[in-house]
Design a protein that fits this description.
Strand order of the largest sheet: 1-2
Order of helices and strands: EHE
Number of helices: 1
Mean pLDDT: 85
Number of strands: 2
Length: 82
């Protein structure tokens, strides 16, 4: 199986998954949820120090045909100068 990447911006976006994919997604989503809660708390602390970190409000999920998260990938982008 190829490791397809899905992006969920709206709750209804998950409806493209079949039942087996959905079960794998739920297990991964639990880890995403805990990671996001912690990351947002840490980002707020850094904001108080003057460092602005923005976390995406989308979920990008790679269906690797396994339950559980093997790794989390973080994309870093330099802020644009306006």
């Amino acid at each position: 199986m190829s490791e397809q990447i899905y992006e969920f911006k709206n709750v209804t976006d998950i409806l493209v998954l079949d039942e087996k994919q959905f079960e794998r997604f739920l297990a991964d989503f639990k880890e995403w949820f805990h990671f996001q809660k912690q990351a947002r708390t840490e980002a707020e602390k850094l904001r108080e120090l003057g460092l602005n970190i923005t976390l995406a409000d989308v979920i990008r999920w790679k269906d690797d045909d396994m339950i559980g998260v093997g790794k989390i990938t973080i994309d870093v982008q330099k802020a644009r100068d306006y």
